[in-house]
Amino acid sequence: MSCLSHLLFAFSHLLSAIMVASPVDLSSNQNMESPRCFLPPSQHGITGWSHRNHGATSQNAALDPIDAALFHPPDAVFHPPDAVFHPPDVALFHRPDPGLFHHPNVAMPMADDPAKRFGLAGLTVLPIPNIDDIATIYTQAEERHAQLEQGTSTQETLIYYNATTSHLNALCATDQHRKYPGRITFFGDEIGLVFFKMLQPVHEFAHLCLFLNIHELLFMMGLSKKYVPVGSSTYKGIGTRQKEGDSGIRPDPPRSAGNQFPTLVIEAGNSESLPRLHRDKDWWFDNSPPNQPEGDVKVVLLIKVYRPTKRIVVERWYRYSQSPCATVLITQHPHKPFSLYDSSHWIVQGAPMVIPFEDVFLRPTEGLEMDIVLTEDFFADMGMRCWRNDTSV
After folding, report:
1. Residue 86: beta bridge partners?
2. d(CA 160, CA 126)
3. What mean pLDDT do residues 22-50 have?
């Protein structure tokens, strides 16, 4: 019995020591850590989560590297779950409010390179001359034209920033006979960006060839008096914005009086100027909002000319689309000699291209009317004839 008494006495002292060293308050869990959970914040029912909320129970706790890797990739900038992320260059083209741009004078974190600032990386973007020296644009246009002819430049568009309506008015006043370079696209005083697109034979022939084929198809449907070709008319956009397109079509009679936007637009340019060509496309959609009295552009056809490889790409774009809805590629036949007189020596991929009738005429078809179908044979002939009329061939 004495041994058992000694054992019980030792056990009671050991239990007392444990309780003193590690007191546990079962009525509160404030000293207990919750198990780690790697589910995204949205699966916890948390909205507007940020790393400032994570681990808030300890003011001295740092963000765990594992958590950082899960929620903040090293090369990404954190945005709340309800935000839409736009990379800096892409945001200029695809944004929630396409009508909003950033003027270069606004204090914002922008790249020093004006080309990158406007999403025109790879192109030459110059400050527009002072109003008193605006005539120097003519000299620059002559120099660029010579460079294009000699093949020392592929940028067919003079691009200027910090431009205003006053600059354009001064340019027009300097030459009443409209000798200033090419077609103008002005993005307004708030943006200060202006394009002067030089007119080149291959581009002119490409968009006119496409337009005339559409005209022929509409004529066969008995619609020659039901639409108006708009050519390089000047269109007024939002605010001080204005633009001259290559070719286009709108229904006749018009939807209302005033500055009628075409329903179908055609724009052509060199492949090296693709950022500029996409800005042209965006201008039409951004400045002709749906349901306005002047109407809105429904379809934009882009013609991209690849001179070094003698390729032509035709794209069909719709409003809000992030990529072309249809693409046709015209190339030389790899197993036949280069020919400017035999269309069978050219390969067409992606044809036919269909332009819905209702997108152009804003009504359903009647009688012999149908969608506009651009066939493989047409594109092969178009490619061959474009290069036949190009001075660089």
Report:
1. none
2. 5
3. 36
* C-alpha to C-alpha distance for 187 and 99, rounded to whole angstroms: 10
Half-sphere exposure (CA, 13 Å, Cβ side) for 146?
A: 6
Domains of the chain by residue range: 114-197, 201-388
Task: Specify the pairing of strand 183-186 against strand 242-244.
Answer: antiparallel
Q: What is the Cα–Cα distance from 209 to 214, expressed in whole angstroms?
A: 9
Q: What distance in Å separates the CA atoms of residue 120 and residue 126, rounded to the nearest whole number?
A: 12
Q: How far apart are CA 118 and CA 102, in angstroms?
A: 9
Q: Side chain identity at 116, as an amino acid letter?
A: K
DSSP label at residue 393:
-
pLDDT bucket at 39, cuts 50 / 70 / 90: very low
Give residue-wise pLDDT tens across range 66-76: 333 333 333 43
Pairing of strands 326-332, 346-349: antiparallel
**What is the rounded distance in angstroms from the CA atom of residue 99 to the CA atom of residue 290?**
13
Encoded amino acid at 251, one letter: P
> Could you tell me if 383 and 330 are in contact, meaning their C-beta atoms sit under 8 angstroms apart?
yes
The residues, any chain, with a CB within 8 Å of residue 313's CB and separated by 6 or more, are 271, 302, 303, 304, 306, 327, 328, 329, 330
The Cα 388–Cα 95 span in angstroms is 40
Token pair in block for residue 114? 């004006």
- pLDDT score for 282: 94
CATH T-level assignment (fold) for domain 201-388 = tt1808, chain A (3.90.1570)
Give yes or no for residue 350 having a pLDDT over 60: yes
**HSE on the CB side for 29, CA within 13 Å?**
3
CA dist 72 and 55 (Å) reads: 15
pLDDT of residue 173: 80
Secondary structure (3-state) at 208: helix
- What is the Cα–Cα distance from 374 to 314, expressed in whole angstroms? 11
**Does the pLDDT value for residue 82 go beyond 80?**
no
- Kindly report the number of other CB atoms within 10 A of residue 125's CB atom: 19
